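batch job 7 of whatever, protein = AG1 protein
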Amino acid sequence: MAWDEWEQLKTTAADRHSTRMQLNQYPADQGGGGTQGDLVVGHKDLEAVGKAAHDLFNDFTTYSGHARVASEAAAGGLKGEGFALGDALDHVTQRWNEQTKTLLDACAHISNHLRSTQNQHAADDSYIAGTVSSIATLDEGFDDRKGH
């Protein structure tokens, strides 16, 4: 495309006013009040989430176990006395166990994912540091050669 042709296209577009060029960019203000740009999560933030998931896993394992044992005992007692409520409570206890396992699996998944993410970032940092130091070594070689 020749320069004159480009100038003519710009003039035609400006005359029409129906189509305008718009640059894709992040909107100026999203009302968040914080810094704009990439999501940043610090090591302390990840540790806090991991600790909360680990604590929930441990505490919920203990307390749900107490609830399970008490419910099973109550269901067994009611069934032993001939109450139909015993079967219903036994059913609820089984569902409770299934839901408990789901929650505990989710907590373990969060904790494991954060651990693997931390390990991957450490590996990435090591790789980047090695690459950058290699470039610095190469630059020093050129500087030394230039001085001769």
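notes: The radius of gyration is 32 Å.
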